[in-house]
Amino acid sequence: MGELRLKNLTIRYDGEPVVRDFSLEVRDGEMVGLLGPSGTGKTTVLKAVAGLLRPHQGEIFIDGQPVNHLPPEKRSAVMVFQKSLLFPFLNVEQNIAFGLRMQRLQDRDSGKKIREIMQLTELAGLGRRKVHELSGGQQQRVSLARALVLKPAILLLDEPLSNLDANLRQQMRELIQDIQAETRITTLFVTHDQAEALMISHRVGLLLNGRLRQVGEPRELFYRPADPDVARFFGGCNFITGRIKNGHFQSAITTIPTSLTNGNGHKMTATIRPEDILITSESNYNLKGRVQKINFEGSATRIWVQCQDSRFVVLASDADFTPGQQVGLYLPPEKIRIFPSEV
């Protein structure tokens, strides 16, 4: 059982707010990824939940109980840091047991608990190894095992994979997914890696400039961003300014049918993802332009197309285009998001 609720948190450093009016709920058994660029306050939120710093405003609830006043060891929330922070003079089994000993939770079943956690985290047979004999991925698994053996209500992961190479990072993502699915431990996971957050999270919260901008399932943030800033963060790069009139979004370069009626007559911003634009060499679409640049990216080709004063980026599987070539673009209306703001 583990539920986490953060209500209107504000945290300041040197008088300046780093996290502002932050509210989030992590349901029992859920893994929520807190995503955002470096320096935006993600780790600060984790530290507040763990009790390592106090918010200047707002409340933190674990399993419905306020915990602002409680020290870290009384919160049933354990944090795994970016660095493994293992004790080099202890072996793997002793490192995992350290938290139990510090919290005076050791009993005659401790050895069994440790062996089970080592099996779960793929450390079986490594109990006598010293820290310097482990790979980076193994060290991070020991840190994870040390947290899990305490059976906390809330597991806090602070970019635990960022120091690993690409292959190890992918393996650890899958391992964390499997462990969370098996244990059903409520987890708040911090990362600046979009792929990581989208892959392993049930829901994702995007933190920009200290404010939580959108929370939802990964596909929702990716394909239905709440505003242009969220769209940009997830790779949106095609923006058109126009107005909604008579059931159409009208801009200087194209007119697109829309079911939106709010904002009628006012300036709006439309966006469409690069992979959603259709491109053809026959120029038989109403929107026409010339290819400026082409980048081959393996499974897709990124193509820059200039259409009057606007430039579009297209991801296409067909690489049969050349700079200077005239092409036609089709923007499927169902793939377009329109916001009441300007870019």
Write a brief caption for the model.
Helix content is 24%, strand content 34%. The chain has 343 residues and is of the alpha+beta class. It starts with a strand and ends with a strand.
Structure, described:
By secondary structure, this protein is an alpha+beta fold. The chain folds into two domains: 4-230, P-loop containing nucleotide triphosphate hydrolases (Rossmann fold); 236-339, Beta Barrel (OB fold (Dihydrolipoamide Acetyltransferase, E2P)). The protein is 24% helix and 34% strand. It contains eight helices and 20 strands. Helix 2 crosses helix 3.
User: Which band does the percent of strand residues land in?
Assistant: 25-35%
What overall form do the CA principal axes indicate? Answer: elongated
Q: Using only CA atoms, what is the Rg?
A: 24 Å
Helix count, per DSSP?
A: 8
**Which stretches are low in confidence, meaning pLDDT under 50 for 5 or more residues running?**
none
CATH topology of the largest domain: Rossmann fold
User: Structural class, from secondary structure content?
Assistant: alpha+beta
Cross-sheet strand order for the largest sheet: 6-7-8-3-9-10
State the distance separating the first and last CA atoms: 44 Å
Order of helices and strands: EEEHEEEHHHEHEHEEHHEEEEEEEEEE
Largest sheet: 6 strands, mixed
Helix proportion range? 10-25%
Task: Assign the CATH class of the largest domain.
Answer: Alpha Beta
As for the number of domains, it is 2
Please report the total strand number as a whole number. 20
CATH architecture of the largest domain: 3-Layer(aba) Sandwich
| Average pLDDT, all residues | 90
CATH homology superfamily of the largest domain: P-loop containing nucleotide triphosphate hydrolases
